[in-house]
Design goal:
The complex is a heterodimer. Chain A is an all-alpha fold. Chain A is built from four helices and no strands. The two termini of chain B are 40 Å apart. The chains are: A mainly alpha, B mainly alpha. The interface between A and B is large, with 40 and 34 residues.
Chain lengths: 111, 503
């Protein structure tokens, strides 16, 4: 399970980094959200994520997984969702004003 | 009494909410906003006073005792930073009333400003690493919006760049938090301090520590991560530039100081070389970047990069004297740079340009502004007898005592470079033959705000001795992480997390 998660996190970070280095700002934003998904997944894994165990202690005790990282990740997901939404609006505004999402051209228009 | 610590977070939040719901009433919004800013400053002073008399104040949020719940901790450093930043924020808020157009103030300027300040105070006060992340995000997302506030192309682009680099930094912050939690099983700073202090083998902790320094370095514009700053700080509306440069980048420096003085105490020597090297390069990059600028706000922004280099150099050297000098730098830079941005804003408003080449001879028309700018510029450059001189003097002395001769020489040499570009800027704007353009008079409120900060700098210089004594007390407290831990766990019996770890 941990190996699978490690590979997934690696792939998310890899594709995210690739997209962030594009000139198209929309791809940059998608890349950013992939990177934050990777970070979130790593945070879940750090709590000893084990697939089928619940993050609460049942009536009879029993096995459970540390709930704290899952609570943290919920917060982090909400935050990254908010920031991504803001970035998309910002880019849309920039697109309306300059007619392009190519970062090089935007910089050139600025002169 | 302990609930007092919550006020610097609660008052801005309440002010922001009320100003959102005041609709389009301009007078009401300004009134509520100024009262909120003043109340925050007053509460910050009260907190500082009670911390000074009775020691570190800890407030347990929602009665979830540490290390499980979130706590707010006000020690001398935190409460001092809150006083400093809320004071600068109050002056800047008065300035904004004159500066930001009415439509902007009717819309979301005031709520965003208070949310930004709430994030900053929260970051200073929190005693939990993940809560620090949350407050970072609050201050960041408000500052993205404020940088792009007037909606010009260059502001949108600067905000996009600023948001992009900081979103990556947030992901790295989460990685560091995840790593730390995976290794130590707790995120409470005091609990981490206890557990890391008792470790035999550091394991992956040095890497995690460096990740934290990199993340905070992005906020503090440490060398490889500084390139967003000149754009964001110069494109933002002027009062926001003052807050970003005067207060917000100090959050990065504060966080580095906090994690290295409370959490990663045993690992500090290992990271020292990294911090020193990056700080030295930051100083050089900032000074030479500033030399090349013709736009007054970009010049001030690059100068901030250079000054952050000095601040972090002091943290890196790590002797008591170096930390006192770092704290003095923080005080001096927060006041002087905010004041410089505010007065530069007055000049830009009057001349209608940001190019220093097309200004000139303004000392005759605006003597007070010229005087204030000179005090700020010389304060940053480190001309005696201003605060900045003593900060640089102490830093160079500390570097020599710690055997870093090269860094001392570099700091001294770059002080001369900063004197050069700041004096050249003052000379270009205010002194030489004027271009003879007609000036638009800037609102009185704007001119007055800059003068208030200049007055505070002069008062600080006169009362240097009490100030340095206070900073020595702050530094002495930072040397005793045990006292921090004791203060936190006095609030609740020290439950060890191991008793409830998953089976």
């Amino acid at each position: 399970m941990t190996t699978l998660l490690a590979v997934t996190i690696g792939v998310l970070f890899g594709t995210g980094a690739f997209l962030v280095l594009r000139r198209n700002a929309l791809k940059v934003i998608i890349g950013l959200s992939l990177i934050s998904h990777g970070a979130n997944l790593l945070l879940v894994t750090s709590g000893g994520f084990a697939g089928n165990r619940p993050p609460i202690i049942g009536p009879g005790g029993g096995v459970y997984v540390d709930p704290l990282p899952q609570a943290l990740v919920l917060t982090a997901i909400v935050i990254s969702f908010g920031v991504t939404a803001f970035l998309v609006v910002l880019l849309y505004r920039l697109y309306q004003r300059t007619g392009t999402v190519d970062m090089d051209q935007i910089r050139r228009l600025r002169g | 009494m302990k609930a007092l610590v919550v006020l610097p977070v609660l008052i801005p939040l309440a002010t922001a909410i009320v100003t959102i719901f005041l609709g389009r009433s301009l007078r009401g919004k300004i009134l509520v906003s100024l009262v909120g800013g003043g109340a925050t400053f007053a509460s910050a002073l009260l907190i500082l006073r009670s911390v000074w008399s009775w020691g570190t104040v800890v407030h347990v949020m929602g009665s979830w005792s540490p290390p499980f719940g979130i706590i707010l901790v006000a020690d001398l450093l935190s409460s001092g930073m809150v006083v400093l930043s809320s004071g600068v924020a109050l002056v800047t808020l008065c300035y904004s009333v004159g500066y930001v157009d009415e439509e902007g103030q009717r819309l979301t300027y005031h709520p965003l400003f208070h949310l930004l300040m709430m994030g900053i105070y929260g970051a200073f006060l929190t005693g939990d690493i993940f809560n620090l992340f949350v407050f970072f995000e609050i201050l960041l997302i408000s500052s993205y919006a404020l940088v792009a506030f007037a909606g010009e192309d260059y502001q949108l682009e600067a905000s996009l760049k600023y948001a992009t680099i900081n979103m990556i930094a947030s992901a790295v912050f989460l990685l560091a938090v995840g790593g730390l939690y995976g290794v130590m099983g707790t995120l409470n700073m005091a609990d981490l301090s206890l557990k890391i202090g008792g470790l035999q083998e550091p394991g992956p902790l040095p890497t995690i520590f460096l990740l934290f320094i990199a993340v905070f370095g992005v906020k503090a514009s440490l060398f490889p991560f500084y390139f967003w700053l000149p754009d964001a700080h110069s494109s933002a509306p002027t009062p926001i530039s003052a807050i970003l440069s005067g207060v917000l980048i100090k959050v990065g420096a504060y966080s580095i100081l906090r994690v290295s003085s409370v959490i990663f105490v045993p690992l500090r020597p290992g990271a020292q070389e990294w911090i020193l090297a990056l700080a030295a390069v930051t100083m050089v990059v900032g000074a030479y970047g500033a030399l090349a600028q013709s736009d007054v706000k970009r010049l001030l922004a690059y100068s901030s990069v250079g000054q952050m280099g000095y601040i972090i150099l002091g943290i890196g050297i790590g002797t008591p004297l170096a930390w006192v000098s770092t704290l003095l730098f923080i005080v001096n830079h927060a006041l002087s740079k905010a004041m410089l941005f505010l007065t530069a804003g007055v000049v830009i408003e009057a001349t209608g340009t940001r190019e220093m080449g097309s200004m000139g001879g303004l000392a005759r028309q605006m003597p007070w502004t010229a005087g204030a700018f000179l005090i700020g510029a010389m304060g940053i450059a480190g001309v005696p007898p201003l605060l900045g001189f003593f900060a640089k003097f102490l830093l160079i002395q500390a570097a020599l005592e710690a055997g870093h001769g090269f860094l001392a020489a570099l700091a001294a040499g770059l002080a001369i470079v900063s004197l050069w570009y700041l004096f050249a800027a003052w000379q270009q704007i205010f002194w030489r033959e004027g271009s003879g353009h007609a000036l638009h008079p800037a609102p009185r409120l704007m001119k007055g705000s800059g003068l208030v900060l200049a007055g505070v700098i002069v008062v600080g210089t006169i009362f240097l001795n009490p100030l340095v004594n206070f900073l020595r007390a702050v530094e002495a407290q930072l040397r005793q992480p045990e006292a921090y831990v004791t203060a936190v766990f006095r609030e609740a019996p020290p439950v060890t997390a191991s008793t409830v770890e998953p089976k």
